[in-house]
Amino acid sequence: MTNEEQAVHLLQTHVDPNQMTLILADMVRDGFQGSKEPFVSSILELWRTWQIKYLKEKAKIAIDEGAFLLGCIDETKTLKGYFRSSRPGQDATYEESVACLPEIFVQVWRHSEGKYVIIEGVCILARNPSLHPGDIRVVKAVNAPSLHHLRDVVVLPQTGDRDISSMCSGGDLDGDDYVVIWDQDILPTDWFHNPMDYAAPKPEVLDRDVTVDDITKFYVNYMQNDRLPQIALAHLALADYMEEGVKNEKCLQLAALHSAAVDYNKSGIPVKLTRDLKPRRWPHFMERKMRNKYAEYVSQKILGQLYDMASHIDAHSKPPFWSPLESPKFDKRVLNSGIEVDEELLSFATNLKTQYDADMRRIMAQHEIKTELEVWSTFVLSHSEMTKDYKFHEDIGRISSSLREKFRIMCYEKVGGKEFEHLAPLAVAMYKVTSEQWEIAVAAHHDVFVDNSHFQERKLPLISFPWILQPILGRIANESFENPVTRRGCPTHIQVEIPRGSKPKKIMASLLSPDVETSDGVKHAGNVLQLFEDSKQDPIDRLCIMFDETASSVHQTENITPSFNGTKGEITDLFFEVNDDVSTPSISLPYPNIQGKITIPAREPIIQHITSPALSTHSNSLDIRSRPQKYFANPTLPAIQREAHALKLGDAHAKKFHIAKAAGDLALEAGSQEEGEEEEIIDFGNNLQPSALDELMQLIGMD
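Given the sequence above, the corresponding structure tokens read:
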């Protein structure tokens, strides 16, 4: 499952009853397989494992030239039915044999051609389960103009000595499904095998009214004498063991018993599985737990060969789920889409994910399903009702669909519509919340355990939550957003103007990294940036120590007058009073490694309260000390860049340091500008309070 084109073809060919493979095909086309998105990659591996499981256990094989269709009657009497008198002789030619076949009409949609196609020629018509060799009927599909209005159904004739539907395992047209195959390589050699008589025995008739005691007594007898599963397994084992296969006399008797057992609840006549019809040896593909190891043999027939092939593939397959020691890469096309996400939307997404995860875990516990991937995709590998596996696949499809629809409606109500412009910010928020939770969980796991020996998968956060908006995520990943998408009701925003170059083509391999390089190494998206070297010391305590320096150093700075010409080592750039509320509706700054324009919600006014280690103030005095230059050349701009970067990534946990100080104490922000570098200019508009600026200039002797 590494080739996208091949994956899409397989997913569209092997469509499951819930049509989840078509959704997976859309996700692959959106590039999520190429980006190795963890959820999509895991779902694809799960689907592959699920396919191998059913090939191994049920011999479930998809036929390209075939269809599974609902049966209906030909009301126009156009189609020719089955007549015993028209059966050809043993020496009949191919054309004579085809002319004697009963007719059907089939018009199905062909994905490869993109249109409806009318099937013509010799076909197989069957219905599950088919135990008798006469249950597989050979028919001829014809083009009947009067039936062109019927699509995606198989139309059966109403003429003839016997209806074809009853010849197919005793079926009828009250909602039965039929298998139609027009692959000429699968046609049987015997086209006109005698069908079995599926007439149900006459039920017992009472000469009085039915009472409650009669009903309860019959129910108990039915539970005690229901032999349908045992008969079906015995037929499978004997058909494989006997040389004649299903045409063996014992297999024919078991087929008749199976039909009678199906009608037991209607006829009230129980069936008995005699000892001579019970198999003594069982093929290995049935995986029977036998006390006597000699009772099992290795089957050399087609079912045994398929089982061995599937077992070989399964043994060399990697597990469908990634290990916590791996670091799954969530798609950066969504994380760095440029779509604005505010704090309130992140909070809503977090709360909604908590509810979603609780509902998902409840479903997993109720049905004993191991992973959320199986619930979301309906490709369940094991569950509590394995004896009703086919029915359960339909049930889990309804359960999974209802779960996704429930939370989609909650998303619609939150943003006020189903349009992309409304849902895109919420989809990004949901994806970011999921990514952050996973990174935190994996980091915590690495801190506690060195290896994977103590790993418990159920303790990891769930990741299927954002995919309830799968079409929205696909569109986000494949579109560029020059003007950020906003949602109705957003508060005032701060716009960060960024110099724009030529717009790069959005390709996965060339996406710009949101990582930030610091003195301690590279900080990745979602990680908390440490703005102080000593992370063990509280930033406020560190500043308080600087404010409490002895006053002896004050005299060294009385005659120093800082200049503002931007030369190296001098006090430049910005001056803030700590208590001033500096609101910034617009910030223009050069931001490294990113091109374009982003919009950041004004969650709180951006106030930079970072005091240079080379500067300290005390009692309205300026103290300039000799500190190591390695702290930072310009402390203000990197801090603002970090703030903008944290908001750009939607980090709800980005730290802001607010310094409380007594009245009259001021924090002076300064730094040095390296020679030869282009000066970075931050424009805060006209929001600085004149009183604060005057007080600051008076402090340093510039009034």
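Confidence is low (pLDDT under 50) at residues 482-514, 524-547, 549-690. Try to locate this feature in the token string yourself.
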